[in-house]
Amino acid sequence: MQEDGSWKAQTPPEDLGRLTGISVAKRGESGVMEVLRLDYEKGSVQVKTEYTIRQVLSPTKMTVGDPIYLQRKDGEPLTGNTMLPSGFFAVKEMKNAEGKLTGVALYGGGNGHGVGMSQYGAKGMAEDGKTAEEILEHYYTGTTVQQVIA
Q1: What CA–CA distance (Å, rounded) separates 25 from 15?
Q2: Looking at the whole model, is its pTM more than 0.90?
Q3: β partners of residue 22
Q4: Which has more confidence, 99 or 76?
Q5: C-alpha radius of gyration, the chain, whole number
Q6: What is the DSSP secondary-structure string of 71-132?
Q7: What's the CA gap between 24 and 37, in Å, rounded?
Q8: Out of 1, 54, 108, 113, which could bridge 89 as a Cys pair, Cβ 3.0 to 4.6 Å?
């Protein structure tokens, strides 16, 4: 942990006890999370940078308790991720009648940095034989790709 209480590691500190709360501390202009606050029994930390937040909350790292399940908007499961697909998500704490944290739900808004095309999705589409025009029109719906003569 750094002097300002921030945390840039990819694994949670072990000496702070049980997680008691989680919240968005700061978002960027595009809505992507820039600082995540994690409250523990013995203190709080701030996870800084979208990339680090996505790694810290990855399904493969958070293995205590029930398994983490990611589901796409279309209902398809998303498995094998080493980090969350995007830093553009909302956090909902689930607490029991005594106010004890029993779970956390993350509601995502996309993939990647929140500014357009997923490099991994585009690569997969290209490997499936899609043209550059088809890929662009998929990610930027309602647009038309045209040649511009200078």
Answers
A1: 22
A2: no
A3: 38
A4: 99
A5: 18
A6: E-TTS-EE---SS-SBS-EEEEEEE-TT--EEEEEEEE--SBTSSS--HHHHHHHHHTT--H
A7: 6
A8: 108
